[in-house]
C-alpha cells in the first residue's frame, strides 16, 4: 500500500471535505454525544499574542466574546492549514495553503467572523 503524506501526519483535503468533517462530528454522525462532550471540553489553556486558547481533545478552542469556536491548525515548510467551526452559528472556515505564506496572521479575525456568523454557511 502506497502511503501518501508528509511530516506531522500529512493531511490532504479540501475545504468542502473539512466542512463535511466538522458537520459529521457535531451532527453526531462520527461521534456519540458523550465523545462529542469530551472532544469539546476545555482542558488547559495557553496565552497567545491574539488571546487565550484552550486545548481540547484533538482540537483547540477559543471563546470569542462568549461564543465557542473549535479549530485545528498546523504547518510544515510549504504547507499551512487552518480549519474552524462554531456550533452556535454553524459556520465553518478553512484555509489550506501550499506556499510559504503566513496564513496565521488572519486566524483570530477569521475566528471572530465565524463566531459572529458572518460569511457563507
What does this structure look like?
The termini are far apart. The protein has one domain. It has helices spanning 15-26, 33-39, 107-116; strands at 44-48, 51-55, 60-64, 67-76, 79-86, 91-97. The mean pLDDT is 80. The longest helix has 12 residues, at 15-26. The protein has a six-stranded antiparallel beta sheet. It contains three helices and six strands, in the order H-H-E-E-E-E-E-E-H. It is globular. It is 24% helix and 33% strand. The protein is α+β, with helices and mostly antiparallel strands.
The pLDDT mean sits at 80
- Beta percentage is 25-35%
Summarize the biggest pleated sheet: 6 strands, antiparallel
- Whole-Å distance between the termini? 37 Å
Number of helices: 3
Helix content: 10-25%
Structural class: alpha+beta
The main sheet orders its strands as: 1-2-3-4-5-6
Helix-strand pattern: HHEEEEEEH
Compute the number of strand runs: 6
How many separate structural domains? 1
Evaluate the radius of gyration. 14 Å
What is the 3D form? globular
Low-pLDDT sequence parts: none
Task: Write the topology of this structure.
Layout: H1 15-26, H2 33-39, E1 44-48, E2 51-55, E3 60-64, E4 67-76, E5 79-86, E6 91-97, H3 107-116
Antiparallel strand pairs: 1-2, 2-3, 3-4, 4-5, 5-6
Amino acid at each position: 500500500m502506497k502511503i501518501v503524506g508528509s511530516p506531522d501526519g500529512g493531511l490532504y483535503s479540501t475545504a468542502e471535505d473539512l466542512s463535511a468533517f466538522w458537520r459529521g462530528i457535531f451532527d453526531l454522525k462520527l461521534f456519540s454525544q458523550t465523545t462529542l462532550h469530551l472532544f469539546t471540553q476545555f482542558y488547559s489553556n495557553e496565552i497567545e499574542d491574539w488571546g487565550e486558547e484552550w486545548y481540547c481533545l484533538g482540537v483547540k478552542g477559543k471563546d470569542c466574546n462568549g461564543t465557542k469556536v473549535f479549530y485545528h491548525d498546523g504547518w510544515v515548510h510549504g504547507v499551512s492549514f487552518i480549519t474552524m467551526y462554531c456550533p452556535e452559528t454553524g459556520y465553518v472556515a478553512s484555509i489550506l495553503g501550499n506556499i510559504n505564506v503566513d496564513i496565521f496572521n488572519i486566524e483570530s479575525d477569521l475566528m471572530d467572523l465565524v463566531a459572529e456568523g458572518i460569511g457563507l454557511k
